[in-house]
Amino acid sequence: MKPCMEDWEFEAQGSPYGCLQLCLILSMLRRDPMCLGVKYDLQSLSDSLDTSIVITFHNEPMSTLLRSVHSILNYTPPPLVREILLVDDVSNSTALLPGNELDEYIPFLPKVKLIRMEERNGIVPARMRGIRAASAPVVVILDSHIEVNDGWLEPQLARIQEAPKSFVFPQTLSISSTHFNHHKEAGIGCFVSFDWNVQEKSQVAGFWGSTDAIPSPMHGGGLVAFRKDTFYEIGGYDEGFSMWGAENVELSFRIWMCGARLECAPCAAVYHIFRSMLELKKRLKCKDMNWFMKNVDPKHEFQDLSTALAGLGDIKSVYKPSLCLDSLGETDGSTSATIDGYWEDNEKPPMSSSPGSA
């Protein structure tokens, strides 16, 4: 097979993917397992819950797309994967066009099928095309720029086996979009929500040894497993969402409101490339929010946070800098003094004291 030179051309022109040439020559197999100590009954899972894995893409660099597929094939027990469905939403990059490099490579990948959309309709219709074509009882949605490792799928299937109406997602860890390093401390954790306030946070939980499912109001969107019949029972994706974004919020609401559950399998983890928006905005010469408020929505009233807030950030003790104030998730206005940064290494705070003692 010819090398995918188009990816190199993208980099030379200032790649819209934001990755260095390094990402194009990395090995297809990189290993960083999370919960190998947990054992599952593969026979029981494969007998009733093998999977169709659906990956949609549009102009994804062939190197990242194939690394996603190879990681699935190499780090997932074969009985759990019936098929991997790649849905091309009308890519126009040379390597991905019909008859070119991708078509030449697919026959060498077991269980992989390529589906091509007739016209570009966006991520949700492309996912629905893959879900309709899926023949397994469980569908797993994955993005096209991920890497899985040993033990990523079994915890999700085990939870679906216990609770068939559960939609289960893994923790999403970060891959640097430039150097392709793995980062366990960054990404999307088990409790995903939305916030209308000043700040919004989603932290990786770090409960790598836990097998207990954690309920979550939302999921990140690109990584989730579910029974196909349950998915259709609640109405599937709203295909009115054509482009990326918001479809996961709407589906999350419907999951909970229509009798299903949305949960995270904390020791299941998938690495994901989070691409930098700053480079994209710079390349597109995007205007700032101040321009938007003045020219697009001038009647909208808003507060200047630089004058409305007395301060924003951690409140730390001068006497003991290792202590800071934290609400510990409470909404009644109470605070406790805790060791700064404990959430990164522990499931529970190692110490606390009464409000005001810091």
TrEMBL record:
Coiled coil: none annotated. InterPro entries: Galactosyl_T_C, Glyco_trans_2-like, Nucleotide-diphossugar_trans. Residues 338-358 are annotated as: Disordered. One of its GO terms (cellular component) is Golgi apparatus. GO terms for molecular function: polypeptide N-acetylgalactosaminyltransferase activity. The keyword Electron transport does not apply. It comes from the Eukaryota. GO terms for biological process: protein O-linked glycosylation. Pfam families: Glyco_transf_7C, Glycos_transf_2. Residues 220-273 form the Galactosyltransferase C-terminal domain. Residues 52-183 form the Glycosyltransferase 2-like domain. Keywords: Disulfide bond, Transferase. This is UDP-N-acetyl-D-galactosamine:polypeptide N-acetylgalactosaminyltransferase T5, putative. It comes from Eimeria praecox.
